[in-house]
């Protein structure tokens, strides 16, 4: 889980933790003086369904055993943020997605630091599925978006993709074109491995110029529009909230693979 402190606060005081299609929570990274196992002391972990099991069937069987009423789920009221205007940053980018996200989209989230606000802004959006980075490895987003589109050919896939991790599996775009997959890739370009810069400060490190240079993506500057076009993908670049909203709305309305390079500031 990331950030570990937030997970610890949410889990604090629990006496029982029931896992349904999930693994026991552990920290994304290791930190000095902080346990990687996030289950609070004195909490008993119960595994109702392992990852890969039929979680819905397990929950239904549990409800039957407990005699729980089969009432319809209580859903939150639909709500959307207004379309943002002005500078494009992590918050306005997230607001645009919340304002425009259609029903039944599959969101693949490897936005990392630049995507921290998206879940909040899409909480009241039409029903959609969310596939999130399950661990500390990066490069997950593009191949998972490709797989989701293959598995669900009638649904639009939105891949929120951090710039640094995009460079691990960028060739997935070629597959999306070859197979005619309906995937929108949004590159969150803050020109750095920002999550690692953040982690340096969180562990109390004092990096020198060479260490900082290794986490910088401006030498040479990456041109994701040109890279995507070289693989056959329709690609655009957004530098303002208005440009991003316009390009995202157009991509939702047009089938086939698209890439939007969202130019964001280097910090939140």
Radius of gyration: 20 Å
CATH domain class name of the largest domain: Alpha Beta
Q: What would you call the shape?
A: globular
Q: Count every helix, treating DSSP H or I runs of 4 or more residues as helices.
A: 11
Biggest sheet layout? 6 strands, parallel
Distance between the termini: 20 Å
Low-confidence stretches: none
Can you count the beta strands?
Answer: 8
CATH architecture of the largest domain: 3-Layer(aba) Sandwich
Structural class call reads alpha/beta
Question: Can you tell me about this structure?
Answer:
- Pfam families: TPP_enzyme_C.
- Belongs to the TPP enzyme family.
- One of its GO terms (molecular function) is flavin adenine dinucleotide binding.
- Residues 126-261 form the Thiamine pyrophosphate enzyme TPP-binding domain.
- The strands form 2 sheets. Strands 4-3-5-6-8-7 form a 6-stranded parallel sheet, sandwiched between helices. Strands 1-2 form a two-stranded parallel ribbon.
- The chain has 11 helices and 8 strands.
- The protein has 2 domains: 4-66, no CATH class; 90-263, Rossmann fold, CATH 3.40.50.
- Strand 7 (234-238), helix 11 (241-253) and strand 8 form a beta-alpha-beta unit.
- 35% of the residues lie in helices and 16% in strands.
- It has 268 residues and is of the alpha/beta class.
């Amino acid at each position: 889980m990331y950030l570990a402190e937030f997970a610890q606060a949410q889990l604090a005081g629990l006496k029982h933790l029931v896992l349904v299609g999930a693994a026991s929570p552990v920290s994304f990274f290791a930190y000095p003086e902080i346990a990687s196992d996030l289950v609070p002391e004195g909490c008993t972990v119960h595994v109702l369904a392992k990852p890969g099991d039929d979680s819905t069937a397990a929950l239904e069987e549990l409800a039957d055993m407990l005699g729980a009423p089969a009432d319809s789920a209580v859903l939150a009221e639909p709500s959307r943020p207004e379309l943002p205007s002005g500078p494009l940053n992590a918050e306005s980018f997230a607001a645009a997605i919340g304002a425009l996200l259609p029903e039944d989209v599959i969101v693949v989230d490897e936005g990392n630091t630049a995507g921290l606000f998206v879940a909040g802004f899409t909480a009241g959006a039409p029903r959609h599925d969310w596939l999130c980075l399950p661990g500390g490895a990066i490069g997950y987003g593009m191949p998972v978006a490709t797989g989701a589109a293959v598995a669900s050919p009638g649904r639009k896939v939105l891949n929120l993709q951090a710039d640094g991790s995009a460079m691990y599996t960028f060739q997935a775009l070629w597959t999306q074109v070859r197979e005619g997959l309906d995937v929108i890739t949004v590159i969150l370009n803050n020109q750095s491995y920002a999550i690692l810069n953040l982690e340096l400060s969180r562990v109390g490190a004092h990096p020198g110029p060479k260490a900082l240079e290794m986490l910088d993506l401006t030498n040479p500057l990456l041109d994701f529009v040109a890279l995507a076009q070289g693989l056959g993908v329709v690609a655009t670049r957004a530098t303002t909230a208005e440009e991003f909203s316009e390009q995202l709305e157009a991509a939702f309305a047009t089938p086939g693979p698209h890439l939007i390079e969202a130019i964001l500031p280097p910090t939140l």
